[in-house]
Design a protein that fits this description.
7-stranded parallel β-sheet, 6-stranded parallel β-sheet, Rossmann fold, elongated, alpha/beta, 44% helix, 2 domains, 352 residues
Length: 352
C-alpha cells in the first residue's frame, strides 16, 4: 500500500495543517507522501514541521497542465494505491489524475459545512462521479449536502485531529487580559461582528486587549473598521505571526465569530492551550464547545450575547481556569492525533 495526500498549498490554514498531520501519522504505518499543487506560499510553522518530521513533500511546478501531468506520472511511478484529496482543486485534479493512473481508492475532501454556489456543482459532480468516497471533517456539512443531491452512501465523516502536547498554560504577564482570535481575514469569519462585540465589551470592562492574528484580503478593511469603531486602544493586529502556539498559550479567552465552519482548527488550538471559548454555533462547533463547560455558543451576529459571554469570562478567573482545563481534557479524549489517525487506519483497512 502506498498513500498520497494532496493539498493545494501550505499557507496557514486548517486543511493545510491537517494534510501535514495526516501525512506524518500515515508514514508510521505505510509509505506515504504529501503532494502540493503550488509552492508560492509555505508558512514558516509548516516548513519547520516538514523539516523536523522529515516529511516527503513534492511541490508541483509550471502551468496547470504541466502540474496535472506531473501528478499523473507521480501516481504511476510511485504505484499509489490510496489518494486523499483535501480541497476543490485537489478533488478535481487529484480525482481525474488518480482515475487515469489507476489509483485503487480516491478519497475527496470537503472541509466546510456549506459550499458557495459557484463551487457546489463541481463538488457535487466530483463527489458523485469521480471520488470513491468523500471525507467530511464535520457532520453538519455531510447532513447539509446530502439534502442537496450528494450521494449519502459515499460520505464519510472524520473529525480533525490535533497534537495535544500538554504545554502549561499561562496568561500573559500584563495587567490586561487577552482575548484572542486567530484566523484568515475573510468575510466567512465575520470579523466585523467580533469588533462590534469588543466595542460593546469596552464599555463594561477596560482591562483587556483583543489580539486578532491572521492575514488575508480583508486586512485593510479590518484596519478601517477598528478606526471607525474607535477601538484602537483595545485591538492589536498581528499579521501572519510566527510561533502561533505561544500566542495561544499566553491568551486568556478565545473568540470565534464565523458565519460557517467545518470543524474549526483554531478552536481546537484554543482548547489545546486550555482556553475557554466563545464561538458562534455553526458547523460542528457544538462538538468542540459544551455550553457552560468549556465555553459559550452564540447565534451568528449576536453582538450582545458575544460581549456578555466575554465579560463573564474576563470577570471570573476561576471560571476561565475551570473551563480551560475541561476543554483540554475533552480535546485529549476525543480529538487527539491518536483518535484522528485510528479512523484513517480503519478506513484504509476496510476500504471505507
Amino acid at each position: 500500500m502506498v498513500v498520497a495526500v494532496f493539498i493545494r498549498q501550505l499557507s496557514l490554514g486548517g486543511a493545510e495543517k491537517q494534510s501535514l498531520l495526516l501525512t506524518r501519522e500515515l508514514r508510521k504505518h505505510f509509505p506515504a507522501f504529501l503532494v502540493v499543487w503550488t509552492n508560492k506560499i509555505v508558512a514558516p510553522e509548516y516548513q519547520r514541521l516538514i523539516e523536523e518530521d522529515k516529511l516527503p513533500v513534492v511541490f508541483l511546478k509550471g502551468s496547470s497542465i504541466s502540474k496535472f501531468i506531473q501528478f499523473f506520472r507521480l501516481m504511476r511511478s510511485e504505484k499509489v494505491s490510496h489518494l486523499f484529496n483535501f480541497l476543490l482543486i485537489n478533488n478535481f485534479a487529484g480525482g481525474l489524475a488518480g482515475r487515469l493512473a489507476g489509483v485503487r481508492k480516491i478519497f475527496g475532501g470537503i472541509r466546510n459545512c456549506d459550499i458557495v454556489p459557484s463551487k457546489l456543482r463541481w463538488q457535487k459532480f466530483l463527489h458523485n462521479h469521480v471520488s470513491h468516497h468523500t471525507i467530511f471533517n464535520n457532520h453538519a456539512g455531510a447532513e447539509n449536502l446530502a439534502l442537496r443531491g450528494f450521494r449519502k452512501e459515499k460520505m464519510l465523516v472524520i473529525h480533525n485531529g490535533i497534537d495535544v502536547n500538554g504545554m502549561a498554560h499561562k496568561e500573559g504577564g500584563n495587567a490586561k487580559l487577552t482575548i484572542l482570535t486567530a484566523s484568515r481575514f475573510l468575510p466567512q469569519k465575520d470579523h466585523y461582528t467580533a469588533l462590534l462585540a469588543i466595542k460593546e465589551l469596552a464599555q463594561k470592562n477596560s482591562g483587556f486587549r483583543y489580539v486578532l492574528a491572521g492575514y488575508g484580503a480583508q486586512e485593510e478593511e479590518i484596519r478601517q473598521w477598528i478606526k471607525v469603531l474607535d477601538i484602537q486602544d483595545y485591538v492589536e493586529l498581528l499579521i501572519a505571526p510566527d510561533k502561533l502556539p505561544e500566542i495561544f498559550h499566553k491568551a486568556s479567552v478565545y473568540l470565534s465569530t464565523s458565519l460557517r465552519e467545518g470543524l474549526s482548527n483554531s478552536l481546537m488550538e484554543a482548547l489545546a492551550a486550555e482556553l475557554p471559548v466563545v464561538a458562534t454555533n455553526v458547523g460542528d462547533n457544538k462538538y468542540l464547545v459544551e455550553e457552560g463547560k468549556n465555553g459559550f455558543l452564540t447565534n451568528v451576529g449576536d453582538v450582545k450575547a458575544i460581549a456578555d459571554a466575554l465579560a463573564r469570562l474576563l470577570d471570573d478567573k476561576e471560571l476561565r481556569l475551570k473551563m480551560g482545563r475541561y476543554g483540554y481534557e475533552k480535546l485529549k479524549a476525543e480529538f487527539s492525533t491518536c483518535s484522528f489517525i485510528s479512523h484513517y487506519l480503519s478506513l484504509l483497512e476496510t476500504g471505507r
